[in-house]
Amino acid sequence: MRDRRTGNGFKVADTSATKSNGAKFVRKETNKPDTLKSEPVKSNKRTAPAEEESEDELEDFGDVDIDIESDDDEEIQEGDVDDSDGDIDEFPEENEKDQDENTLVGEEGEEEEEEEESDDYMAGDSLDEEDWNEEVKTSEKKDSDKPDRLPEIEADYDSDSSTEDVENTVGKVPMEWYDDFPHIGYDIDGKRVLRPAKGDELEKFLSTMDDPDSWRSVAVDKEGKDVVLNDEELDIIRRLQGGDIPDAAYDPYEPTIEWFSSKKEVMPLSAAPEPKSRFIPSKWEAKKIMKIVRAIRTGRIVPRKPASEKPRFYNLWGDDEQPREDHIMQVPAPKMKLPDHDESYNPPEEYLPTEEEIKEWEELDPEDRPKNYLPQKFNSLRQVPAYNRFIQERFERCLDLYLAPRVRKNRLNIDPDSLIPKLPSPKDLQPFPTQQSISYEGHTGRIRCFSLDPVGLYMVSGSDDNTVKLWEISTGRCLKTWKFDSVIHSVAWNPNRELCVFAVSVGHGNVILIAPPRIGSPEQTTLTDQYFQQGYAAMSTAGDDKDAKNPIPWVKPSEEDQENLGYRVQLSHTQAVKQITWHRKGDYFATVAPDAKNLAVLIHQITKYQSQAPFRKLKGLVQRVMFHPIKPLFFVATQLYVRVYNLMKQELLKTLQSGVKWISSLDVHPGGDNVIVGSYDKRLCWFDLDLSSRPYKTLRYHSQAIRQVTFHKRYPLFASSSDDGSIQIFHGMVYNDLLQNPLIVPVKILRGHSVVSSLGVLDIEFHPTQPWILSSGADHTLRLWT
Prior knowledge:
alpha+beta; Methylamine Dehydrogenase, Chain H; five-stranded antiparallel β-sheet; 35 strands
């Protein structure tokens, strides 16, 4: 008899799977290194045909032993297997010898009889009852001597992917490689994984109709089958599609746990006594010290080595890369330019010039040519001729070395980021206007000017369509419209809250003071009428002398115009008035008519109906004038300068030099110590009157001419409007401390007005109480930005 064994157990012949040619498959059983399993297991007879069928298809005889001596009609003998009708378990290696001997001795008598019946019988296939009991005792004794086994590690959700049961082990191989094969890979034992049968589209449709989980199935190419997703995986897919965090248990808004605090802890990390090694001198440090001592003894290390002497002479143009100490005469020689691709003897085609380029190059003067050679193409290096400009270039190189500067000029090594001031974030500087709220539409021409009443409830606007409209700011409703014969140049509302009156500049020099009917309170209407009655009384008492003193006439309108239109008085200038500005008390206002020569600037008083020209002769063409908000100062802006006059002393205090070509607008800070100036050459200048007569800051944020600049009365804001259709909002904080300069930060760009005929935003003004700004443009609209 032949006794065939594996490494640690017997190999049993399974006679249930046979081939038609008489070859018998002997299946290798898996090893059972643990204790003997006495409970019955399922028979192998039923599963054999399926295994036979799959093995027939692949014809894989890698793991079978073939016994050709047996016949097809052999049957399993009763003595070959146990009564349990199951697989014969392989015993541990320790009990293998005793079991082998007992089986051989106990079955000598039966061996001759069974040899005739079956040639396949193997010794050790069956056990006697005594041998069985003896084996059980021996295995129990061995198990009692062994220590208890640790529990197996369970792979949970957080474990790595190595614990997953992967059938196909081909790894990251493209599955297209297996398109022409009947299998799709190999399992962990090296056997081929067959490709599952795929039906046609009709079968797929019927299977999806029958399978309730088809909507949540996903085809896995590597496994060749459909995997049903569970609820947790579906929830992850939903969250990924919605842009949420995939983990449902993760809370992005949970409170921060301060793992590391700034408090210094005094207790030690460990209360254990310090180890003995901390008090023993280190062996390795002693070795390092001895190594240094040996180097000093042999002379490799020289302690207290004297400093090396400086050389008396320097090679100016030496190209040695050794670092040298700084010396005023040590200047690196100018390097020659490295050759380009077109200097090759066989350059690429795109570098070769055309005939037109060659002709153009030859017509240029030698000093005007971008390069002193033309790229040429040769088939080999042997055909390249000598360079005809070799001597000239050597001579020029010598001149470069001879005439090169030999004095080092230290360059300032400044980080560019350090030059940029660290400005606060615009979010920290709120409130300021950010978006458009209301658009006031009704004018049919470009709106050159508008003005707000001191409370901030109403607004009056003047346009090129010869009309003046009164608006309610909060609703955008037009309350009243005045029609005139010519263009409206300027409007200005009286800043005194007790009065309700505004001034309008119409056409060729007419200035009309209007008290809008049914707008103000009865107290305001009464006080306004008293103001103008005082002027009428003063004008009637003065008589002809008054007309002689007044440079321009004051005309009383008709009673019909007074009642219906609210006209109070009319002033007739010699030229068109471009600007009207009021004094903060509301009794005086100034007008600017640039073409009126000596009468270009006039100051008028309502209560006396009196006008005066403060300047006998003006230096330059006046553009804008302003009253100081607190002191008796008067600002006059010409094309290039801003002059500050004292009205009480009647003298010039200061001249501000703007540095711009043409001043277009002017405004004074409510504190009175800072002035901003806008110009037609796109610049905005901030002047600090206590600092200098030159601009403290010059800002250029607009791409076209600046039309208007303005300060807010309450908030630290100022703005500028331009012909590029934008409004720039700035944060301008002025500090009471004289040692601290004003803080200027751009915070917002407002765009909404369209540019018409190269004209954009023509006028802007802040709301007197809210952080809002209103603007008028050439697109016939007024806009409120909040």
